[in-house]
Amino acid sequence: MSTPARTDAALAVRGLRVDFDGPAGPVPAVRGVDLTLRRGEVLGLVGESGSGKSTVALAAMGLLPRTARVRGSVLAGGTEMLGAGEKALSRLRGRRVAMVFQDPLSALTPVHRVGDQIAEAVRAHQDVSRDHARRRAVELLDLVGIPDPGRRARAYPHEFSGGMRQRAVIAMAVANDPDVILADEPTTALDVTVQAQILDVLRTAQRETGAALLLVSHDLGVIAGMADRVAVMYAGRVVESAPAHELFAAPRMPYTIGLLGAVPRPDTDGRPLTPVPGSPPDLRLLTGGCPFAPRCPLADEACAADEPALAGPGEHVTACVKTPGPDPYPVPEPVPPARTGVPREDLPSVLRVQGLAKTFPVFKGAAFRRRVGSVYAVDGVDLDIRRGETLGLVGESGSGKSTALMEILRLARPEAGEIELLGRPVGGLTQREAHTLRGSVQIVFQDPMASLDPRMPAGEIIAEPLRAQGRGRAAVAGRVPELLELVGLEAGHADRFPHEFSGGQRQRIGIARALAVEPELLVLDEPVSALDVSVQAGVLNLLQRLKHELGLAYLFVSHDLAVVRHIADRVSVMYLGRTVESGPVGEVFARPRHPYTQALLSAVPVPDPSRERARERILLAGDPPSPVVRDEGCRFRGRCAVYAALGEADGSRCEGVRPAAREFGEGHVAACHFAEA
Amino acid sequence: MTTTATQPAPPPAAGPPAAAAAPAARGRGRVALRRFAAGRNAVTSAAVLLLLFLLAFVGPYFTHWSHTDIDYSALREAPSADHWWGTNRIGQDVYAQVLHGLQKSLLIGLLTALTATVLASVVGACAGYFGGWTDRIMTFFIDLLLVFPAFLIIAIVSPRLRDSGWIVFVALLAVFGWMITARVVRSMTRSLREREFVRAAQLMGVHPLRIIVRHILPNVSSFLIVDATIAVGGAVMSETGLSYFGFGVQPPDVSLGTLIADGSDAALTYPWMFFFAAGLLVVFVLAVNFLGDGLRDALDPTSGHPRTRRRPRRNGHQPGPRRPPT
């Protein structure tokens, strides 16, 4: 970056500034970014939401809306992209610079066949016949690993799964051998096993075309596995840039250090997370000093005076006047483990679920609706939570996690199986008993904006469960400030509305509301997945502290295995509506028994380049099968490496017999016929 | 809450200290009231509406003419010291007549709009929230009323109810004026029902009717308020129309509508017969519209003016009647 633009730069961004028109004057999004992307190189661009990383990628493609004012220069292989006319841009897009978007569904036209769309991309830049372009499209689909590409090219986008759509978009991006591929959060919308596949495809595509790859992501693990060099963005500027190994091993900018300290890792446990205090600044209100100074533990007057420029020895440059020591952030006190000597079996049970099932009917016909089948959303889930325990429930999208939660929280007799809450079966509860029991199980939702009524002040939101349980007005008025302080907010915040809080604060309100009636079990449905890493750490620490102080039990649902590893005592893995493995979190993560768990764990990216690149990955083939088919045998066998290696006789067991849970050590069970002991 | 209400407003403290000494959470009603008081248009229109009521109900005591008196010595006379706003073609005092008409129109307009909106929001929200058979039965009634020829029915029914007075007329107008609003509320409720905050309330064990009152209705309130302000004007207009055909307010009773209808052909030759009534009607409808806008902004915390900017100007301002949160 300190080196001047060289001719071998595939993409050179110089002094890029982007402002969006707002109702109250221009809103800066990017404030002076320099990037150099060399041929064949992967540059990772990391940052939290609002840091301007996607805007940089869009500016490089000339895709910003008309309300954006763009200054600076973007050279793609020596051609200026900024200010180029629509016609000139059309020649450059796809040929020189290609883009892979986050949401593959909106990147494909739903009314055209996938093959035709790729062929169109080919013919846009190459003067070839229609047939030739079609053949090339099939080749490209084969390159990105779509099975049976000839047939698949004639399918429509809605017939593809999310992962296959993203493959098709990548095929389109590499159709014209571009010099640069811009990938904007290419795997954020995908499940972790599919993410591993797509990252693999991106690597292949980049190798085949020799293009440079600009990978924009908020996920440090993904960046660690892919990037040669990393640039960290904060408040519209690059604040640190270094070769990947160096950046992860020895970050210099306090923000980068904070980010790395805040991200939970799947490969270590017990390390307390160090949240970065505060939240990102409003770019309209910057005063001229270092934009990170208000959140920085090392900041002093020098930081407020002037915004530091990128500087440093060699390739590793930082925009910081300080030289931080190893741990600039105050490390929160580690929460002592909750369990004290009492064997787990003696602890009172909070929630016990056995063989829970839930099906949804599938209807057909408009005038005469008739039931043609069922979706087996949940088909045999077992859970067991004791007092003061956190159970992590993990599974990919469509595995039935949310359905299982809703069935539990309904407090009514389930379709099949048993649910016991605080030792009482919920099947035979009267309405009054169910209402009382509602006080002891509360839920925190994923999206704090959607789960708080926008028209209610925070104080009333928190008071709602208290009122529902019939507490008096005086009791409510006394409890609300107490709760706000318990979750780290101020009592004076009670009359603010949800939109006046930041994302992390909103989630704290959601937690305060759930804690209002002193529940025994808190159901957390992806409580941190909508939050940025630096904020997420604060909420996770809060949850751990609350659990310790109040003796709560958590049912923590998440697709993020690193977070589960960090917070859970036990973990339960679901696949297509069934529990496939459960056990103590350390045990399951260290020695997973079920082939699905093994693949899942190996797909989780680790924010450490040397480990991430050295370890062996189990790539799962294909996508989960349809839940409409009820399988007599194992639902995982279509993607299972163990099953594929079995002989005929053993294989028929997987096809015909539903695997029962087998015990592997204390409390560790897995539902697989052939898991190794 | 009650203890803080009796205290005088604390002196404005700067920044965080206020938070430390802050009273218990202010309810939503109080917050809305404060926001309402901050809107200039809203406060002005509320004051105008209040003045209109004062004029309509206190004004008649300042003149010795009543709206039925006929002064045979002054036919079609221009405004004078004796007849402040002139007289009409049979010598009735326009001031007394307009004020009496204003009484009728204010009451009919506001009560009709209020009744229709309440009916629409209750039926619409219940139909949308509960779904199933509740929804089917309620929607059937809504559709049934929609296809009824309202004018015909009012025309048939109103002569029989002539003795029971204008309040029955309000009920009739309201009964035929809420269906479209109810359908819109129903569809808005159906989408709100799927939102997470409603689901959260359900899982907390909040009673369904309470959810409707506390979550559903506040979130459709913007629409309801705008709809109600339009309905006020609409009610006055349909009252005028019906009265013109001889079904609504009947002589010797008058309303703004009948006065405008009577005076319209004399608007250019004897303007006082027409413009006092018409002007008051315009002022009334405008005031209601601005009041509605103010209410909508006050109830929608995300709308318009940031509170922080307005706060300094309201230092020491004591909000009016304090309403406990519902």
TrEMBL record, chain A:
UniProt signal peptide: none
Domain of life assignment: Bacteria
GO cellular component: plasma membrane
Gene3D superfamilies: P-loop containing nucleotide triphosphate hydrolases
GO biological process, one term: peptide transport
Compartments it resides in: Cell membrane
Keyword Membrane: yes
Mode of membrane association: Peripheral membrane protein
ABC transporter domain boundaries: 13-260, 351-601
Alphabetical UniProt keywords: ATP-binding, Cell membrane, Membrane, Nucleotide-binding, Transport
Keyword Transport part of the UniProt annotation: yes
CDD domains: ABC_NikE_OppD_transporters (cd03257)
Pfam family, one: oligo_HPY
GO function terms (MF aspect): ATP binding; ATP hydrolysis activity
Transmembrane segments: none
Primary residence: membrane
PROSITE patterns named in the record: ABC_TRANSPORTER_1 (PS00211), ABC_TRANSPORTER_2 (PS50893)
Family named by the database record: Belongs to the ABC transporter superfamily.
Family annotation (PANTHER family): DIPEPTIDE TRANSPORT ATP-BINDING PROTEIN DPPD, OLIGOPEPTIDE TRANSPORT ATP-BINDING PROTEIN APPD
NCBIfam families, A to Z: oligo_HPY, PRK10419.1, PRK11308.1
UniProt-recorded name of the protein: ABC transporter ATP-binding protein
Source organism: Streptomyces klenkii
Automatic annotation (TrEMBL), chain B:
Keyword Ribonucleoprotein attributed: no
Basic residues compositional bias, start-end: 306-316
Database matches in InterPro entries: BP-dependent_transpt_permease, MetI-like, MetI-like_sf, OppC_N
Region Disordered: start-end pairs: 1-21, 299-326
Subcellular location: Cell inner membrane; Cell membrane
Record domain ABC transmembrane type-1: where: 102-292
Family listed: Belongs to the binding-protein-dependent transport system permease family. OppBC subfamily.
Official protein name in the record: Oligopeptide transport system permease protein OppC
